[in-house]
Amino acid sequence: MADSEKKKDPPKPVEKTSDPIISQIGDFRRYQLFFCIVIFMCKFGTGWHTIGHIFLAAPTPHSCTTENVTDPCSDDCHETEFDHSTFQSTIITEWNLTCKNATLASLSQSIVMLGVMFGSMIFGMLSDRFGRRPSFLGCCFMQLICGLIVCVSPYFWFYCLFRFLTAFATGGTMTTSFVLIMEIIGPKKRELIAILYQLPFNIGHASLSVFSYFLRDWRWFQFSITIWSCVFVIYICLVPESPRWLFTTGRVDDAIKILEKVAKHNRAPTDTIREEIEAGHKVLAARMPSKKGNLIDLFRTPRMRIKTICMANNWLVVCMVYYGIAQYISKLGGNIFINNLIAAGLSIPGTLLCVVLTKYLGRKVTMMLTNSISAVGLLALVFLTNAPMNIQVMCATVGLFGASMTFPNVYLWGGEIFPTVVRSNGVGLCSMIARIGGFIAPLICDLAMFRAWLTPFIFGVFSIVAVIGTIFLPETRGLPLPETLEDGENFGRKQRD
């Protein structure tokens, strides 16, 4: 019986490439498909926790109930009340974040972005040092526990602390999950998967309007976007260590064991894996220093330094524009649920369109095009701040649509441009820099209280700066991943020389 099954399903030969890992398991077969689907599930939570502030701190009108006083922020007003017709409770009503304390609401979101920033960087470093799997599992379960504690926050600063810790874990989830995927996918499907990786985040963003519509109490809303993380338990059994990381760090036997299991799932030959991986590692070891890469290596050589700075600039701008405009739309007025559902919903086709653009135009042209779209929508809004509300929402949505196409591209491009020995450090650094943009985005949104045109103007100018910075980055479409620091320094040399 076993012999007959072998005849029916003989191993399918794998195309041999310069990549020793992909040469054993195939570019993209059924194991990689299954692995991507499993990892994608964690991205819903990243969208919920990073953008949930839109509804946790939703604009809530309040009025003064003191006789003959109309201004609720006046010193003569001794008692106020909130309008609970839209939301039963928010953090605004919970801790009276109005008048002199109004900026605390935006500060709480800046604290979240600070958490994502440090989480991306620190978990990226831990991932390069101790492995992708332990770092990934650690941040997944930290996100679940801290997110649930947020639901029972008795004080505002307690809420901020555990939102910070939840965001810290979320930043780690973003970095480690992306690196896990990038290191097991071949170049033929890399752009498709790296871009589709952003899709659950977009769906998570859009679904926030649905959660909030049915759950008008902020505590139950927070609980609903956190409890999904219980599914992370399956990762203990289904997520192995990255064989590419094991291979690069010298743990060849462990890499071979995982590659043999993956090859069996992919119905690929396994008889030559040990021989080819050991030979490949000898070649790698001969041209790679024994010490592991670190953050300093990203700036040690001139070409790598330019790539790191320009790529980090792209991440900074897209994070600032995406999160800033998402929050800005919620403050424009009208129906907060519909406005956010439409704006976030358009990011889904934006991400899908990015698949086509990066495939046929490449990463570089696509990056310049999508940042230009954001700039056009936002700078048009500068001159339309007195226009009807639906016109303003439409312009802001164009800016968000452009950023929705830029976001998956920076993940894809960043994962391709950094060599394996510092890939998590590189992506983690870029993600950290991006969160600086996310940190100041809510504060930039508050500038609209002084001059309505200031917020879209600042976001629009930064989008133009990103277009200029992209000029200095090399195209990576269809090229093998760089492995060593030398590979990273020389990567793109032919395109520019």
Describe this structure in words.
It contains 25 helices and 2 strands. Helix 6 (103-130) packs parallel to helix 8 (156-182), helix 17 runs parallel beside helix 22 (423-446) and helix 19 packs across helix 21. The protein has a single domain (21-60, 88-496), classed as Up-down Bundle (Growth Hormone, Chain: A), CATH 1.20.1250.20. The protein is mainly alpha-helical and 497 residues long. The model has no long low-confidence stretch (mean pLDDT 85).
Offer a quick outline of the entry.
This is GH23022. 70% of the residues lie in helices and 1% in strands. It has 25 helices and 2 strands.
Q: Helices, strands, pairings?
A:
Blueprint lengths: L1 H7 L13 H4 L4 H22 L1 H4 L5 E3 L15 E3 L8 H4 L8 H28 L1 H19 L5 H27 L4 H10 L2 H16 L3 H9 L8 H4 L4 H6 L3 H14 L7 H15 L9 H4 L1 H29 L5 H10 L1 H14 L1 H21 L6 H29 L5 H24 L7 H17 L14 H6 L2 H4 L1
Helix pairs in contact: 3-8, 3-10, 6-7, 6-8, 6-22, 7-8, 7-11, 8-22, 9-19, 9-21, 10-18, 10-19, 14-15, 17-21, 17-22, 17-23, 18-21, 19-20, 19-21, 20-21, 20-23, 21-22
Membrane topology: Multi-pass membrane protein
Organism: Drosophila grimshawi
Protein name: GH23022
